[in-house]
Amino acid sequence: MSKRILIMGLPGSGKTTLAEVLQKTLQCPWFNADKVREQFNDWDFSVEGRIRQAQRMRDLVDNCPNDHEFVIVDFVAPLALMREIYDADFTVWVDTIQEGRFDDTNKAFTAPEKYDLRVTTQDAQFWAQEILKKLLPL
Fold first, then answer.
1. Residue from 117, 116, 99 nearest 108 by CA
2. CA-to-CA distance for 43 and 75, rounded, in angstroms?
3. Contact, 50 vs 108, CB < 8 A?
4. What's the sign of the alpha-carbon dihedral 6, 70, 15, 36?
5. What's the pTM?
6. With 60 as the cut, is the pLDDT of residue 6 above it?
7. DSSP per-residue letters across 55-99
8. Are strands 70-74 and 30-32 parallel, antiparallel or unpaired?
9. Which of 24, 30, 42, 88 could, after both became Cys, cross-link 72 (CB 3.0–4.6 A)?
10. What is d(CA 136, CA 132) in angstroms, rounded to the nearest whole number?
11. Structure confidence at residue 1 as a pLDDT band (50, 70, 90)
């Protein structure tokens, strides 16, 4: 099974930009939460809707062909339960802004207690290399 990479953080923090750079290097599947919501026409941001989205992201990754070492998802994952449902093998917390553009998401967001890398600046090239150092053997 492919290793699940989660790139999470507030809207506007740089998750998608980082995921795009990382995906180009790893040449692996990548699921962006906004594109997935668009595909399923599901813009429900209630607690139930957010949990459904986390399960959907998990299901998409679990149903990917196993011919890639990694699969990337980027989504806010504001609730600890969402992160538990997705059950990432490697979590990147993009912590570059204090507040996103959606007040309800800001209020719902709880900082992760565990993560593998905390991104503190919006420099996708630099942070993609830092992720690769941790993911790939020397």
1. 99
2. 13
3. yes
4. negative
5. 0.94
6. yes
7. HHHHHHHHTS-S-SSEEEEE----SHHHHHHHT-SEEEEE---S-
8. parallel
9. 30
10. 6
11. confident
Task: For residue 31, give the nearest of 9, 46, 1, 53 by alpha carbon.
Answer: 53
**What tokens does 52 get?**
């459904």
Tokens 């709880």 sit on residue: 110
Q: Which DSSP category does 2 fall into?
A: P
Give the pLDDT mean for 123-134: 96
CA 131 from centre of chain: 13
CA distance 30 to 84: 19
Note the residue count of the chain. 138
pLDDT at position 91: 97
- Residue 69 scores a pLDDT above 60: yes
All structural domains of the chain, each given as residue ranges with its CATH number in brackets, are 3-135 (3.40.50.300)
